[in-house]
Amino acid sequence: MPERGNADQRFLLLYGSQKGLAQSLSQDIQEQAEQRGLYAERHCLSRTSRAFELAHERAPVVIVVSTTGDGEPPDTATKFVRSIQRKGLPPNHFCHLRYTLLALGDSNYTNFCNCGRTIDQHLAKLGGHRFYPTGHCDDAVGVEEIAEPWIEGLWEVLKKELGGRQWTQANENTMTTGRDPVVRSEGCIGMVKESEFTVTNTDAVSNMSSTCHIKGGGKTAPVLMEADKTLEAFIERSVRPDKAAVGTCEALEPSPSQKPKDAASFSQGEEHGSMSSGDDKLITVLSMSCRNLSITSSSETKSHSSPANSQPPSAWTRPAPHLSNVALNVPSLPASFLEIDIQRNTHFDDFRVESMVDLLPKASSSIHWIPVVSAKRLTQLDAIKTTMELWLDVSKTSLNLSPGDSVGLICPNNSEEVSYLLQRLELEAVADCLLTVHLTNANTRKGVQIPVHILSQCSLRMLFTHILEIRAVPKKAFLRSLAEHAEDPTERHRLLELCSRQGAADYLQHIRKSLVCLADLLHSFPTLCPPVALLLEHLPCLQARSYSISSSPLQHHGHVRILFNIVEFPTSVYRASPRRGVCTGWLTELVGLYVRGDVTLTSSMDDATAVASKVPQVPLYARPSTSFHLPEDRSRPVIMVGPGTGLAPFLGFLQHRKWQQDEEAEPAGEMWLFYGCRHCKQDYLYRDELEAHMASGVLTRLLVAFSRDNVHPSGAAAGRPTRYVQDNLRIYSKDVVRMLLQQRGYFYICGEARNMAPSVHETLVEIVVQEQSGTKLEAMRTLATMKKEGRYLQDIWT
Asked: I want to staple 95 with a disulfide (CB 3.0 to 4.6 A). Which of 127, 137, 326, 706 is the partner?
């Protein structure tokens, strides 16, 4: 193993993670570095000035960082980002620094990979030299699509940065997958037994041109490899990135005459870059046709069927014909590092949700148990979606919330799903016994630790109920590990296909887009039975769910209102039975019959003690917003866009302004609300409350669009039908431009991020172009300036 002090082998590896993915990728880089004889000194970005100091770092630096929310840095990177943004730093502050960066983000959000871009921009601005192109990973299509080739290409460049020292990869000629030997072969793919694989070592260097092409969605789209530093290009990327340019490919299209090469989305400042495949190991499933692989009978292989559905597995779980004769490039098998001990004679059930406070994102308070004082269904029984309202009593807490803030609800996993996992994994007999977790004595992974969310003492039922995100969509590394525990060779082969680079399209369709989780895999692959320790290594921490408050503490002191749609997932080829969202399903069970609509849970909000003894309580904490608040200058006009439950924070805005109007009698600027729903009669939320705000003069204009109704009264006066909020924005384009640009007003969007928010933004661009007779680029620059000034604000979710 390389020594820490050897400067020829050492580089600094930093990560900033919110949910653990960036941390996991940095760990993969560290392990691969060790295999190549390098030493990666790895630290969290939160340890800046304690464990590392970039101002004095002479070794190459590799940074892996995620983005959370709509462009915010993860909690662990906030301090670091602020430190490099300090005013007064000289332009040559990092002139000695050689760095590269892997940014993680989600292109459904406007500020895609914004934290990574911010760090990249400031390091370069202060004189830093980027020695390898920045990678931008898109969680909307799979982080691995960019991360894997980026990491593979890193080693050849890093080798040169470290002085050209000759270094070799450990176990170059042989390797093991954990169950079967994998034999190196330099020749053609041959016929072997079903359990054997061949590793082909490809040393070719891929010299990429400035533009390559990848296949995605049936189209071939160019992927720009050069990051133009002009304002125009920056705006183009930051406002709405081209998904094709951030890795939304479904399959790579290598030249038939060449060995497989990797395409990735990189940005390299002012110059074109080349990428080296390095010691790319191509694990090849041999050319025996998958269709000829026999399925082991039930008498030969132990079968684990789902109690909910014992039907034969669906077509998506069988090997794909289009992958039957291709070389599968699969992730290397992660080495196991956890072990568990179960004390069968010791019962343990001592979980306290308050112990999770250190793991909560953006928490500004301790965890409080809050009684539900009112619950009712807002939509009609025949509405497509069921929307619920909850009033929560926070009068006995120290929570300090304002309109625009949100609360984080700490919810458990569904008890039936937990029971299924315990049964399916044959763990019911020890589900409530004391469990201890520790690192295995045979662990060879440098720097690994027990995940911080795994308690030192717990039980399996507690882990599956309160700690682990059992609904998490499995990453490719998880599928690779699971494949080792499928007894049937056909099932094992299919899992390898799904995690392979050649099976990227199948992974996207059957795993990511279908929201397949561990329970679905266990149901669909009957002989799959992984050990518990493997699940602890790969399943992330169960995340709290965030809900915007839809009330004002000025008008409803001591009480908070939240809205939510009950998320429904119907039965499909991937799910044996229907299920609901983790948190919305749990909340629905808490309020019981009230979801039916014919019963309403209400109690006197003044009698909190009596209420608390009769109704459920929910654990929550405060998540204050840094910017999504009403402007301090009340004379500024406000435009609010909130379809569906995106209306929630604006109800709080209106209540807040109503109280200010009644108590302070100060003049306020215009407030316009663009609201949308499907049907006027079935799901028009808070119609009476909104019309009351119109009557009082707090709300200047209420514009409602009904996407599924034939009558659209809000656009009737203009003689134009309106189905969506964008239509009403176009109708009142002159007023929108007047309020936002001439009167320097504020624009707020709340709601769904995948389609609604980008569509509204594009509509705004059109409006500015039309009303100011300018170009699209000028309009985009105008909106980017509004964002920088804090006058274009979003509260959006996927």
From this structure: 127
> At CA 147, angle to CA 454 and CA 282, rounded to 5?
105
* CATH code, domain carrying 59: 3.40.50.360
CA-angle at 177, arms to 39 and 104, nearest 5°: 55
Q: pLDDT tens, 369-383? A: 999 988 999 999 899
> Which of 234, 268, 302 is the last residue in one of the domains?
268
CA 11, 12, 18, 24 torsion: positive or negative? Answer: positive
pLDDT at 281: 35
Please give the helix or strand (H or E) that residue 281 lies within, else none: strand 280-284
**Edge to edge, what strands does the sheet with 433-439 contain?**
338-347, 433-439, 457-458
| Residue given tokens 């995690």 in the structure block | 499
Show the 3-state SS of 586-625: HHHHHHHHHHHCCCCEECCCCCHHHHHCCCCEEEEEEECC
CA 2 to mean position of chain CA atoms: 35
Parallel, antiparallel, or unpaired for β 387-393 and 601-602? unpaired
Domain end position, chosen among 268, 292, 313: 268
Using 70 as the pLDDT threshold, list the residues of the chain that sit under it.
1-7, 164-313, 358, 361-364, 445-447, 593-615, 710-721
**Structural domain span for residue 46:** 10-268
The alpha carbon dihedral of 745, 749, 755, 758 has a sign of positive
Instruction: Give this prediction's pTM.
Output: 0.74
Question: pLDDT, tens digit, for every residue of 283-334?
Answer: 333 322 332 332 233 333 444 444 444 455 578 999 999 998 889 988 888 8
